[in-house]
Amino acid sequence: MKPLIYLASPYSHASSVVREDRYNEALQCTQWLVENRFLVFSPIVHSHHVGQKISGKVDPKYGWGYWKEFDTEMITRCDEIWILVIPGVLESVGVKAEIKINDLQGKKCYLIWGYDYDNYKNVRLDFIESFESKIKEILNAQAYRL
Questions:
Q1: Distance of CA 136 to the CA centre of its chain
Q2: C-alpha to C-alpha distances, 57 to 23, 52, 63, 114, 121, nearest whole angstrom
Q3: Among 9-13, 19-23, 82-86, 134-138, which is the least confidently predicted range?
Q4: Is 58 exposed, middle or buried (0-12, 13-18, 19+ CB in 10 A)?
Q5: Measured between alpha carbons, how far is residue 53 from residues 56, 57, 60 in Å?
Q6: At 48, is the secondary structure helix, strand, or coil?
Q7: Where are the domains of the chain?
Q8: How far apart are CA 87 and CA 65, in angstroms?
Q9: Cα–Cα distance between 87 and 16 in angstroms, integer?
Q10: What is the mean pLDDT of residues 7-24?
Q11: What is the pLDDT of residues 36-59, one digit of tens each?
Q12: Number of other residues whose CB lies within 10 A of the CB of residue 67
């Protein structure tokens, strides 16, 4: 049976342009994964347009508390978490929380990034064993891409 993948990636930012760029990165990666027959759930791809519709609401039920509950449930239902390495991944409160939730559940974690963003022709995927090594790998990956 194929594993169900939770694709974690940064999203929140003060700039709507940055949020849109991050959404497009997650969309491109999700598209590549689907085209290559992976079973994937991306909370960013799934929720981007919903978030745009409710972002002006002041009701606290639309803040991180809601998304944390939603993400926790989805990670619970998925078999693995894959972290999309793009700018902002190290600073992302959401990605850090998703990694911790995944670690508490003892599931596999991978880093994924593409070198050809037109269609993810060249993809690198690395298995990561601990939270500390995840952060180090992300730092190394970002340095490698510069």
A1: 17
A2: 20, 10, 10, 35, 39
A3: 134-138
A4: exposed
A5: 7, 9, 15
A6: helix
A7: 4-75+89-145
A8: 24
A9: 15
A10: 89
A11: 899 999 999 998 666 656 655 544
A12: 17
The pLDDT of residue 94 is above 60: yes
Grouping H, G, I as helix, E, B as strand and the rest as coil, residue 127 is strand
User: pLDDT category, 63, cuts 50, 70, 90?
Assistant: low
Structure tokens at 112: 């994924």
The first and second tokens of residue 115, run together, are: 């070198």
- The first and second tokens of residue 2, run together, are 């194929």
Domain 4-75+89-145 = CATH 3.40.50.10400: yes
Inter-residue contact 83 to 131 (CB < 8 Å) = no
Q: Please give the structure tokens belonging to residue 51.
A: 């978030």
d(CA 146, CA 119): 19
- Detail the DSSP E strand segments found in the chain: 4-8, 39-41, 80-84, 108-114, 123-128
Name the pTM for this structure: 0.79
Average pLDDT of the residues in 53-77:
72
**CA 136, CA 128: separation in Å to the nearest integer?**
10
Q: What is the pLDDT of residue 80?
A: 94
- Phi, psi values for residue 108, rounded to 5°: -65, 150
